[in-house]
Design brief:
With 670 residues, the chain is of the alpha/beta class. 32% of the residues lie in helices and 24% in strands. The protein folds into 4 domains: 2-101, 3-Layer(aba) Sandwich (GIY-YIG endonuclease), CATH 3.40.1440.60; 115-310, 3-Layer(aba) Sandwich (Rossmann fold); 321-364 and 426-560, P-loop containing nucleotide triphosphate hydrolases (Rossmann fold), CATH 3.40.50.300; 571-664, Ribosomal protein S10 (Alpha-Beta Plaits), CATH 3.30.70.600.
Length: 670
């Protein structure tokens, strides 16, 4: 007989520990899914084997036994080690981490081939590598030959051929009998990536994992990976937990994107997870971007990452010509339109030349908010307290935080006035304006409103790639990694939306979005054009983005981060307390702050900002208050230990009164 420690599938802190059982099932190993009797009534519960024991740590009265083992579900060998890391790093429960690896859903009654597998492709000729691509691969391959882990930052300008490097690394991995994981930041990009990789490697070698799959589809893909039926996994963030063994390469394209940071428990950072798996599996990790995050560039500068630079577009096409338009001057000249004169004229010229146009605005809806012109009342979400966005086509106002929808009020709820007016601009309004100005053009829009139905994103992008639309209007979905051959003009309708966010990353996000959006223009032989509209034309993020000058942007921004002690010089730890009574939220946060400082020492008070109301002060009928802790590297162990203690204390004493969450290095302060 053996003894096993198991993790019970139960999402509560009460059971967030290891439970010891006897087992008469031979061959159990860490990561196996089992059924065990649990609670005093011995109800069968699902659990995962954490570790095997020759003898229990202490004598157990009324020892219980494992009932059965799931024949299909066994997590990869490193899942337990990684879940331990996640539990400490992200303050989550065992089961929260373990469930990242589990398939979810149920096995389909009849397994079926996916559409990618059914399609037949002619295997293309492998394109000849450029000098820079060859040099990059020459630096990566030795680590693969020695089966030595290393993280590479592949910093290449837009259209420099980073994807070809990824494919060559994956080919090398497959040649060595190893598997590969290819991650993209948005589900919208998976279809394009799947097509390119299927053409190169064949659909039978590829599994797809992302959150838009049905539960049955995800289970089916998970089983294919676990059974070794495929060699490559493609997907968004969650695909990093694909149950592969023997991984040779992990690749994160557009590594700077915030979508690689989970905003749900466990609130993990995909780059950190990929690096940890790379260490365990002795795999190379490639982080690719034209605009790397400040953190990644800093690590490359410090020698933690190997820095691979691609400075030229693969087809020798010069970067697009960027024109900055000061919208303040447009107003002074009497132009109150969404489009500046320069953007309008260049759109007209592009359409005459049979070139396609992308218009980028990182705000969906028709307008930003609905307000009464008589008394100033703003329509806000009853649950979240933030202004609701006006959606003209739906005849609704929508909360973009919680999704609440309401009909447009016929009169002001506060004073009864009929003078309700919408303010600001969203993609829906840009679409309306484009149709009015260019009635003969075919206009398409891609944002979260038009991409709700399964397959709608792929269809919109596919139609645009085939030339079925002349103008594509969209949010950041159209700014990331897409490759269209006939786009001659990109219009950035307002570069100030991200610039004015109350976030220390606002300059970085602006630089990245502008640079990435501009990179969609002129991706073949003809030079493209970009019109960048802004009310802050002299801001260094705007100027350096227009010049495609990453080095200057990094130099200025990293100095600010260093001075203020922000990442990469520290970890930021966001703590949010939520209570039913508004005044109690602040009191709760203050009590947490006091308890934390009692553990780490009052001299650390300068590193704790707050408490203060959260930007989204109310959510799900709970009022929210937050603390922000700057954790310098030398303080991590001390702070981590203190926060574990505080979290347990809150749960033990205030479980039913307070909601308590911890987020390490959040990408949004909401």
């Amino acid at each position: 007989m053996e003894y096993v420690n198991v993790i019970i599938d139960n999402s509560t802190d009460h059971t967030d520990s290891l439970f010891t059982y006897g087992s008469e099932i031979s061959g159990l190993k860490p990561g196996d899914k089992v059924i065990v009797p649990f609670t005093r009534w011995n109800k069968p519960r699902e659990a995962y084997v954490h570790s095997l024991l020759d003898e229990p740590d202490q004598k157990i009265k009324n020892l219980k036994y494992v009932l059965e083992k799931d024949p299909d579900i066994s997590l990869p060998s490193y899942a337990i080690e990684l879940s331990e890391y996640m539990r400490e790093r992200y303050f989550c429960r065992y089961i929260d981490a373990i469930k990242c690896f589990a398939p979810g859903g149920k096995k389909l009654k009849k397994e079926r081939a996916t559409s990618e597998e059914r399609e037949l492709f002619e295997k293309p000729l492998t394109p000849e590598l450029t000098f820079e691509q060859t040099a990059a691969l020459a630096r990566i391959r030795p680590y693969m030959e020695k089966e030595q882990h290393k993280v590479f930052l592949v910093h290449g300008v837009t259209n420099s051929g980073k994807t070809e490097i990824y494919m060559n690394v994956i080919e090398e991995s497959l040649r060595r009998g190893k598997n590969a994981v290819m991650l993209v930041p948005e589900i919208a990009l998976t279809a394009q990536t799947i097509r390119r990789f299927t053409t190169r490697f064949g659909g039978e070698n590829i599994a797809v994992l992302h959150s838009k799959l049905t539960a049955g589809e995800r289970y089916e893909q998970w089983l294919k990976v676990r059974r070794g039926q495929v060699k490559i996994v493609i997907g968004a963030r969650s695909a990093i937990f694909a149950p592969f063994e023997n991984i040779g390469a992990i690749i994160l394209d557009e590594e700077h994107e915030s979508t690689y940071k989970s905003d749900k428990t466990p609130k993990y950072d995909t780059i950190e997870i990929a690096t940890k798996i790379g260490v365990i599996q002795k795999a190379v990790v490639l982080l690719g971007s034209a605009t790397p995050s400040l953190e990644s560039s800093y690590r490359a500068k410090e020698g933690i990452y190997e820095h691979v630079v691609l400075e030229k577009r693969f087809n020798e096409c010069p970067p697009p010509e960027v024109e900055i338009v000061d919208m303040r001057e447009e107003l002074l000249a009497g132009n109150k339109s969404i489009f500046s004169v320069a953007l309008y004229e260049k759109m007209q010229a592009a359409l005459e030349n049979k070139e396609q146009i992308i218009l980028f605005l990182n705000r969906r809806g028709y307008s930003t908010f609905l307000s009464c012109r008589s008394c100033g009342f703003v329509v806000r979400c009853n649950d979240c307290g933030i202004s609701m966005t006006f959606h003209k086509a739906a005849g609704q106002v929508v909360c973009h935080y919680c999704g609440r929808r309401e009909k447009i009020p016929p009169a002001c709820p506060a004073c009864g006035s009929k003078y309700m007016k919408h303010f600001g601009t969203g993609t829906e309004k840009v679409e309306e304006a484009a149709r009015e100005l260019f009635p003969n053009a075919i206009v398409s829009r891609l944002d979260l409103d038009t991409a709700q139905k399964k397959g709608s994103t792929d269809k919109i992008l596919s139609d645009f790639a085939k030339g079925k639309a002349d103008i594509l209007i969209g949010t950041q979905l159209v700014a990331k990694g897409l490759d269209f051959s006939n786009v001659g003009l990109v219009g950035i309708v307002s570069a100030d939306i991200t610039l004015n966010l109350p976030d220390f990353r606002s300059s970085e996000r602006t630089f990245q979005l502008v640079t990435q959006a501009a990179g969609r223009a002129g991706r073949r032989k003809k030079r493209g054009n970009v019109v960048l509209q802004t009310y802050s034309p002299d801001h260094f993020a705007i100027q350096t983005a227009a010049a495609q000058d990453y080095a200057s942007f990094f130099k200025e921004e990293i100095a600010v981060r260093n001075q203020l002690g922000y990442p990469p010089y520290s970890d930021l730890i966001l703590i949010v307390l939520a209570t039913k009574k508004e005044e109690e939220a602040g009191i709760a946060a203050q009590k947490v702050k006091d308890a934390f400082l009692r553990r780490v020492g009052k001299e650390h008070a300068c590193y704790v900002l707050g408490p203060k109301p959260a930007p989204v002060n109310k959510s799900s009928d709970l009022f929210r208050s937050q603390l922000l802790i700057k954790c310098m590297p030398e303080h991590w162990e001390n702070y981590q230990s203190a926060l574990v203690f505080v979290k347990k204390k809150v749960f033990d004493e205030k479980e039913k009164e307070w909601t308590f969450s911890i987020d390490v290095n959040p990408y949004g302060f909401y």
